[in-house]
Design goal:
Elements: H1 2-18, E1 25-26, H2 29-41, H3 57-62, E2 71-78, H4 90-99, H5 102-109, E3 115-122, E4 132-139
Parallel strand pairs: 1-3
Antiparallel strand pairs: 2-4, 3-4
Helix pairs in contact: 1-4
């Protein structure tokens, strides 16, 4: 779902641009790996704490992204989801939802953050109601 992550990245930068905040740069492979790890993890344990009990930012370090001093995480989920509906509107729905939540909006518009990685995990199991999970990892 690389296109999905790319759409979230573009929509996030559009929000920053609307608010006079510089655009975020794309993450390197290490931070991208961390975002995809976190997207799958939040399908197991919803929240900013990882299934192993550590905070979200430990996924960044474990993936080899060690140059950060400040980090933020936004998480979003859409469910139940019917695969026959298509996916085109979901990235915008997620970013709009984050922008309507003060803490998430603060992460998106925080000028300290210079880098963004987006991870997406689609749980295709019917018992999971085909949920789509998305993580934004921000870094200075």
């Amino acid at each position: 779902m690389k296109w999905f992550a790319e759409e979230v990245y573009q929509l996030t930068n559009s929000e920053r641009e609307k608010h006079g905040v510089p655009k975020l740069n794309r993450a390197n492979a290490s931070l991208e790996t961390a975002a995809y790890v976190r997207a799958e993890e939040i399908s197991v344990v919803w929240g900013h704490t990882r299934p192993n009990g550590t905070e979200f930012h430990t996924a960044m370090t474990e993936a080899g992204y060690t140059t950060w001093r400040s980090a933020g995480e936004n998480i979003a989920k859409v469910w139940p989801y019917s695969p026959d509906k298509g996916y085109e509107d979901i990235p915008k729905m997620m970013v709009d939802g984050l922008m309507s939540s003060e803490g998430h909006k603060d992460n998106i518009l925080n000028p300290v953050y210079k880098i963004l990685s987006v991870g997406v995990f689609h749980d295709n199991r019917p018992e999971a109601e085909y949920a789509i999970y998305m993580v934004q990892l921000f870094s200075d």
